[in-house]
Design a protein that fits this description.
Blueprint lengths: L1 H20 L26 H6 L22 E5 L9 H12 L5 E7 L12 E6 L2 H11 L11 E4 L3 H5 L31 E6 L2 E8 L4 E9 L6 E3 L6 E4 L3 E6 L4 E7 L5 E4 L5 E8 L9 E8 L5 E8 L16 E3 L9 E7 L2 E7 L3 E2 L5 E2 L5 E4 L5 E6 L9 E7 L4 E8 L5 E8 L5 E9 L6 E9 L7 E4 L8 E6 L5 E6 L6 E6 L10 E6 L6 E4 L5 E6 L6 E6 L4 E7 L5 E4 L5 E6 L8 E6 L4 E6 L3 E6 L9 H9 L1 H45 L2 H11 L28
Antiparallel strand pairs: 1-3, 1-4, 2-3, 5-6, 5-41, 6-7, 8-9, 9-10, 10-11, 12-13, 13-14, 14-15, 16-17, 17-18, 18-19, 18-20, 21-22, 22-23, 23-24, 25-26, 26-27, 27-28, 29-30, 30-31, 31-32, 33-34, 34-35, 35-36, 37-38, 38-39, 39-40
Amino acid sequence: GADASRSRRRATARDARAMDDVPASFPRDEDGFVDWDKVDVESVELPADEIKRAGLDQPVKVELEEAKEDTGFASVIVVDNLPQIPEAKFGKLLNVLTKIFTQIGEIREGGMLMPQDEATKTSLGYAFVEFANEQQAQSAVEQTDGYKLDKTHIFKVCKFDDFEKYQKVPDEYVAPPPKPFAPRENTQAWMMDQRGRDQFVCRFGDETQIFWNDPQTKKGEDVYTRTHWTESYVQWSPKGSFLATVHRQGVALWGGDSFGRIAKYGHNGVQFIEFSPCERFLATGSTHDPTTADGVTSVLVNFFDTRSGAKLRTFMGPISDFIAQGQQGLTWPVFKWSGQSSDESGCFFAKMGTGMISVYAAPEMTLVDKKSIKVDGVVDFCWSPTDPILATFQPEQGLGNQPARLSLISLPSKKEVRSKNLLCTGSIVGVNMYWQASGDYFGAKVLRTTKSGKTTYSGFELFRLREPNCPMEVVELANKAEKIVAFAWEPKGHRFAVIHGDGARPDVSFYSMKDKQGNNNCTLIGTVKNKTANHLFWSPNGRVVILAGLKTMNGQFEFFDVETMETMASVEHFMATDVEWDPTGRFVTTAVTSVHQMENGYHMWTFNGKLLYKYGKDRFFQFLWRPRAKSLLTAEQEADIEKNIKKYSKRFEEIDEKIRNEADSNVASEKRATAEKWKKWVESKKAVRDTPIYKQALDELLGDQAKAKLDFVETTVIEEEILSIVEEPL
């Protein structure tokens, strides 16, 4: 109570002093308090010491922000470069514009205006569109600027509020000062690693990390790590020059030794990306929910030049424009790139529609011959990986009167290289198409039914693209009714593998497109029975294939040498979901991604199934090897290197031996340090044991037993440990 009383007295005294500080000339009310409404504040002069204490004697810097006037037109866009048309065609053009822009946002009632010349009644070539809000207007600018209405009319879209910015542009052009030359980093520098190592990227949690694969140290060597680098996923470009990260605003490309940002491409809500094989072009895609109750889902696809960042072409429309007849939902990529062109100057890309395939040429981004290829009822197509050849499949039509058909079409001539009608007593249930990585062969697995429709059986239609007239042949299993589990071509070579069987442990058969005499006859090499496998993963160099049991088979792997038809190793990576060969075929990874809650991470193996190291991380999302560019060596040069491999490998063996010796030295140093530490600890204990205090304490603890003589013998044991075993070739 005393403390509270003293506090109240101090507060009263302070208030009294404050009242005394107020000039007596200030007008006051009936209670004696200052009536501030009647005080002229500007005439009041503060004492000099109060001015200094408050810091009011110093000049005050005030930064005024430029006032931005709200024009009320933030949700209005201007669409320029429209056709100038007579009044009779106004309705048709307005309907086209409405269809385009309602896919992006809600247009306000009466929110589309297309001015016209009062004298001629023709349109002036531009229009105003008002959306429900500013965000929709901004999306419309980003998605339709550069939209190609027809050959001569490409939209130029901007916001209405941007006109003030354009009005400030001077009448006379003044060239900007040239920017100093800044050399770009070499995006292929990683290929010059002296040890010939490969890189890979991992994405886990919020982290994205790039490593060197180092088989000698048996671990991944960290190259670059970044948090929140992407908002969804990452993707290497086909030659490994760039790493693409995907964000809500668009896509960014990174590269060079420092992995700095090389370019960015705007596309709000981007979900999918696809590089052209030559890396010069990038397609970005997204789907957008309808903005009205009776609207439909729309699709937007943009094409960019990766060098300049320019948007080359935009495709936009309802989802029905981007799916084939009978197709359920959108399948990416909507546009498929053709194989690598010989001069790398351009390529083709194609989209499937109802009864047609539209093929476009890059970099012009125009329809080849100004018209699509008519393919009645087409439901699937794919490009050769190496040539501009298109494979298409048309199912049976006309109640079976028109048979199913496979076709190979060459571009840009659009001539059929070869076609085949698929006949059977019943019907064609489905077709899966497979190109060999070198483009030498094309195969189609055809699933047929018997006349009764109760039984299905499979066969393969195989085409030889490098032979005159593209000959083809049919291959069927000994038991045609067996289920085909998997099919895969050997990337370099002439073999293919098939997993077939209805049981839990199917068989695997290997075929060659050449017989023992080297003639073009498809022959069975051999069949291995009862394998725990449902996927095939060939080495990029061929010969070795992994028979993988994923998903329900819980990660069983068999490394198989097709040349000798022998198993090199059988291993397990429990719950593995992914298998990835490195570009050279020397190493392979098996990974457990976040689809499983446990055991996330990857295992690194040699090509013959030897485990090098493991890496575990929670919330593990992606593992991607960095692709390599095509070798500059000719086939003859590669054959010479393979013939004289001992001469060329000597330098790398010396480097590997040096690394092993350094590793052995490090291990030996660590062991010596541990032994020295132990020796010092023992000596310190012996020193304590010999002190009078220790002896006295020991005598008190042991009593009469201390008088007994304690005998002990010290024995030195030398233990040998094998650090490494090197197998010398015979």
